[in-house]
Amino acid sequence: MSVFEQDQNPSLRPGQQWRETFLDPAIVQLFFKLYWRVRGDWELGHHALNCLVQLASLNGAVLINRQVRIKYLTQYLECLFSLLSSTQISEVEALGISNIFRKLLLFFPPSVLVALPEEMLRQLVDNLTALTCKFAQGAAQEEMLDEEDRLYMEAFEQMLQSWACILQESSSCNSSQVKQSATLIFDTYLKCHLAPPEGSRVPVDADEISETVQTDRVAFKDQLVLIGLCGRQAAEHSVPLLTQLLEDRIGRMRSQLTHILSNNLTIAENTQLDQLYEDIHWLLLIAGHVTTMDNEGETALIPSEMVTYSMSAAPTINLEATLRLLATPAQMPAEVPNSAAADPLIRMMSTVMRLCETESQALKANLGHLLSPEVSSSLMWFLRRFCLSYLLPNESFYTELSIALTSAFGRDSEGAAWTLNYLLSVVEQTLRLRSAEPGLVEDTVNLLVTMVDSKERGQHLVKTEGLMELVKLQQSGTLGALSSLAQRGLMQGLVMCAASLGDTDARTQFWTHVLDPPVASFKQLVTSESFTKQYQQEEMKKQVLYHIDNFIGAVQGCLMPTAQCLFSRMVGILGESVRLLDLFHNYPTVVETVLELFVECGRRMLCYLTPSASKQLYEASVHLVGTYAKHNIGRRTVEARGEEDQWRDLQLLMELLTSLLSKDFIDLAPSGHGEDQEVVAAADVCLFGLNIIMPLMSPELLRLPTLCSQYFKMVTFIAEIYPSKVCQLPEDLMKNLLVSIELGLTSFGPDVGTLSFDFLVVLGSYIHKNCGPELPVRQGLRPFLKLVLDLILSQQINSDLLQAASAALYTLICCFQVSGKP
Q1: What pLDDT is recorded for position 820?
Q2: InterPro entries, per this entry (predicted)?
């Protein structure tokens, strides 16, 4: 079967007996003629167009060699070009036509296309370029009009996928033509998102803008990634253009804010400011994707095109002018001597710093209400990507870097130290003056975490006065408006700095400033005489949540060098948190937050802890699970949210138990502590927790997909790591466990079914090798032989489960082969 058959239009892969039919030029011509005749009647036309899409994906035995592939492709393209030159593609045809190009590039990649006649290849690229630009303009129009059916938008994204195939193999094609086409697409996209006169974006009344869940950088991420790829093909064009447009918009923004400072804001000026902000927002998004790449799960690097561009500009730049331009954000480039001789890449970065400075001056002038949260969020997003790739890069990852980049952002450079200080001041000011804007605050906190998520950057930051200013702000109590996520992120960023301090005394002193005050404040709160009397008051609950969020953030900032010291300060907090769970057991928000604290400890700290510290965490976790069970076993609620709350609680408990179990095979704790005490096995704690959780698991709760998946992951994980301990479970618990496995085989989806079969395999294998016939667990497993056999023979299981089911059947047959009867 083809790997592409999950597509709406699976590939055309006929057997070799169809070779002569499909290679007959008249067949392809027939289908194109048929489409031409019926395209006016879309009920028939879309079926005919789907046939053309299928023909574009012809592959397999009918195309026996490269020569035959080229011959067929030539015939197809001749018909396609004839169609495109004879008419204008309408909106309803756009998606089908884009699918044709996507299929062509997928099944006839650039390494094949280069064998086409030169003129035909040029014509293919020209048509691809023209249609991409046309669909981009149509997509922008649909976006402005907020249309429900966005055919041009889908078509445009399909065309960009086609270009991804070409740009990633640009060495196979005519690089000059590809570069020109990529530049044209980039310019078209940029124009569609800018206001006149440079752009064509249509102003939209704010009242007509629909509320969308996703931000632009998320909703249009795939587009922006590929537009960034297009921009990097001609960095010498895109980078100066984006810089010029940003400088122009920022200059106009400064002028308007200065004018408003001494005059009342008119409606016309407000509209102009909105249009200006929308321009800056999109320029930041596009510039961010041109100068950086998405590096999820990988080391962030400066794109090779940007390195090459900066190197090529080196002979003509003035290093002193470059650094002066970077270090004077309060001045516009025209006010900085010799700014034209600055490195173009660093000039763009300095332009973004000027936007930071413009917002800063507006806040100081009490004009913060005129700033755009969307622009500020995009600014923080850009700065975060910039930090990841450019600020103190690991120079060993590059064969060469320009002197301008290493002087401005490299290790031991004054430019890097200045930039870090400046960004830290931006973070502090934003949190202090704009804490009521949740999206902006979260992006600002993400920037802070990125800044400290590097030993080199952290070593610079811990020496700055700005970091202590941020610590004072965090502990001042003025950030109560921060969301839970932002509060955690802020504390995470501060705690992560400690890992950059190699000296133990320096680290201890750092803790006294960052962590000891919150711990002392929390203990003072929960041990006060008034706490047990007033704990039900809303203000008291807010204070409790505030403190626990801080501690969750501290745990999230845990790294190997700081784990042991951090845990020694946190262990008392864990005990108090269990007490809070007991006290606030009727308040789901507090219960969840306490459980999240323990889950984070299991995920982030446990693997670094010594045996004695691990035992303390195990004991606290056992106490936690027991306290939770005391208030929830046998509990029933008539509230609509009640079951949902319990579902979230149980999921967190199972995540905790699973993370505790991981200690037995991921142990990174320092050795040589001379601890002779008996080591508590994580599996024992996990099984104790399972014994408490099992009575809480009802068939109704297991029908909740997320909870169900987490439960079966946990029990299968336990069986894989410690099958011997599962076999020793109490009889009642074992019976309940096997009943749930039977439900997993018959009542839920394929993912849960796979986990259930895996459970039978690992447990059955252990029983077969190690357990005698007299053990109850062996007899408990016996009915599954008949059940699995019946499921396979009656075809009651998904075909995707057949391999897992067969493995389970084989294992069970091995277990019970003596009797020969299930």
Answers
A1: 47
A2: ARM-like (IPR011989), ARM-type_fold (IPR016024), XPO4/7-like (IPR044189)
In a domain, 813, yes or no: no
Lowest mean pLDDT among 432-446, 549-563, 630-644: 630-644
Whether 447 is covered by a domain: the verdict is: yes
Residues 458 and 427: their CA atoms lie apart, in Å, by 15
- Which of residues 507, 537, 554 is at a domain's end? 554
The whole-angstrom separation of Cα 814 and Cα 804 is 16
* Domain encompassing residue 297: 234-407
Indicate if the pLDDT at residue 70 is higher than 90.
yes
Q: Which DSSP letter does residue 680 get?
A: P
- Domain count along the chain: 4
How far is C-alpha 733 from the chain's CA centre?
39
Instruction: Give the model confidence (pLDDT) of 592-650 as tens digits.
Output: 999 999 999 999 999 999 888 998 999 899 899 889 888 887 665 545 455 555 688 88
**Within a domain: residue 263?**
yes
One-letter amino acid for residue 712 of the chain: F
Nearest to 398 by CA among 501, 538, 303: 303
Token pair listed for 653:
């408990």
Q: DSSP state, 708?
A: H
Residue 8: name the closest of 42, 54, 43, 63 by CA. 54
Q: In the chain, helix, strand, coil percent, each to 5?
A: 75, 0, 25
Sign of CA dihedral 259, 261, 263, 267: positive
Q: Are 156 and 136 in contact (CB under 8 A)?
A: yes
* Residue found by looking up tokens 């937050």 in the block: 593
Per-residue pLDDT tens over the stretch 168-210: 876 656 678 899 999 999 999 999 999 988 888 877 654 444 4
b/e string for 718-728 if b means 16 or more Cβ within 10 A? Answer: bbbbbbeebbe
The 3-class SS string of 570-604 reads HHHHHHHHHHHHHHCCCCHHHHHHHHHHHHHHHHH
Same domain, 441 and 533: yes
